Amino acid sequence: MASNGSLNQRMSLGDQGVRALPSFFIIGPPRTGTSWLDGVLSQGAWLSNPTKETRFFDRHFNRGLEWYSSHYRKAAAGRPLGEVAPTYFASNEARERIASLLPQAKVVCIFRNPVDRVISLYRLKRAYGLIPWDFEQAMVCDPELTESSRYATHFKAWQRALGSAQVLALVFDDMLRDPQFFLDTLVDFIGVSRLKLAPSQIRRVLTSEGMTEPRSYHWTRGAALLADWSRARRLDTLVAKAKNLGLPKLFLGGGPAFAKLSFSQRLKLHELFRPEVEELETIIHRDLSTWKHPREDSPNPQVLSATKAG
Questions:
Q1: Which of 94, 149, 161, 307 is the most exposed, fewest CB within 10 Å of its CB?
Q2: Beta carbons within 8 Å of 180's beta carbon, 6+ residues apart
Q3: What are the domain boundaries of the chain?
Q4: pTM score over 0.85
Q5: C-alpha distances in Å from residue 136, one per residue of 142, 193, 241, 249
Q6: Mind listing the pLDDT tens digit for each residue in 24-54?
Q7: Which residues of 13-34 are buried (b: 16+ CB within 10 A; e: fewer)?
Q8: Where does residue 94 rank: exposed (0-12), middle (13-18), buried (19+ CB within 10 A)?
Q9: What is the pLDDT of residues 90-136, one digit of tens each?
């Protein structure tokens, strides 16, 4: 059930002079190609700008609709509005608030081999100074790693909240195999005109990018906190300019390469996630057998050549 706060905000929309709000959300979960999609969809839709992930519906709801709508201040008529927001997938609060405030919204979920995805998410969070732990510790101390892998559980919850017809399930493997068909399916669902991928955009989907441990966890962590502090004060443009100038390179990486997981570690993860994968197979009528068992020669998970939230 939606909170009273969200219901009150919905009823007062007309009184706040709030700009138009999104009609669709790409909710991931994280590390499912959302950064690539953000770049592609920006050619045909108005997305939150300059911050890709506002975190409004799960973390910053108390900042109010006027703050949220300010991320669409450049939007003009003729294009749908949307947000690429992978952290919303596993958030009960985000789901309830969107269902209450924007009940007609379309939602897209993208599912990836959960073992590859959770390793990729761990590495990204370590690289950006968001967590201090090694992988085994993180699986215990960081609930997002496992919670965002409860694919069937959260997908069903989104279907119940908005209706099955408004929630689309896509598979990350299809993005790698046929990016244009994947994109066509997605834009047809959310009501954006079809976009022709350039060769460079297709190559970017298929390109891997290495990440390393941070040179200094505390230095990297401090930079991340400063960026969050700036966004909270509507200094998103300054953060975006800093990125364009390449300043993040001063804080990211520079440390040792991430250690590979052993076969036994990967096997343990596959066993942990298998029930959710099997239930998802039934829901979306898709054979996901390759996600259930590790191979002896399993490579390190592929990481899209995209930015922070991939």
A1: 307
A2: 196, 197, 202
A3: 4-211+258-291
A4: no
A5: 10, 44, 36, 27
A6: 999 999 999 999 999 999 999 999 988 889 9
A7: eeeeebbebbbbbbbbbbbbbb
A8: buried
A9: 999 999 999 999 999 999 999 999 999 999 999 988 888 888 999 99
